Amino acid sequence: MDIQFISVSDKDTTEQDQEMTDAIKDKIGPPKTYTFHTDDSHGWLQVPLQDVKDSGIKVSRYSYQDETYAYLEEDCDCPRFLDWLGTDKSLSMIQEKNQYVRGSSPIRNKQQYKDATQ
Questions:
Q1: What are the structural domain ranges in the chain?
Q2: How far apart are CA 44 and CA 78, in angstroms?
Q3: Is there a contact between 13 and 76 (Cβ–Cβ < 8 Å)?
Q4: For the sheet containing 43-48, what is the strand order?
Q5: How far is the C-alpha of 53 from the C-alpha of 38, rounded, in Å?
Q6: Which of 12, 14, 23, 11 shows the shortest CA–CA distance to 93?
Q7: If we measure between CA atoms, which residue out of 71, 81, 66, 84 comes closest to residue 43?
Q8: Which of 107, 109, 53 is nearest to 81 (CA)?
Q9: 53-89, pLDDT tens digit by residue?
C-alpha cells in the first residue's frame, strides 16, 4: 500500500480555517458571548433568560436570575445548557468571558431561578 503525505503550510491552514469560520458566521450569525462568573468557592454561567427558555433545560434551585439573565450553576445547570448548545446548530459558536470576584459573588444575592412555566 502506498501512502501519500500532503504538506499544508500554516498559512494555507489559517486561510482555510478563516474561510470556514466566515462561512459558518454567514449561516448562523456572530458567536454568542457568555460570561462565566466565579467567586472563591463557586461559579455560574450568565445566560440571557430567553436562551435558557429556548434550551428547554430544567434548571435547579442552585441557579439564580434577575430581570434579564439566568446565572446557571456550574456543576449541574451550566453543563446541561452547554450540552444543548452543542446540539443546537444555530448556537454552536460561542465565546466565553471570565469574571472572578474575591470573596462572595453578588450573584448569591440574586433571586433563585424560577421556571416561568411552573
A1: 30-112
A2: 7
A3: no
A4: 94-100, 32-38, 43-48, 69-73, 64-65, 111-112
A5: 23
A6: 23
A7: 71
A8: 53
A9: 999 999 999 999 999 999 999 999 999 998 888 755 4
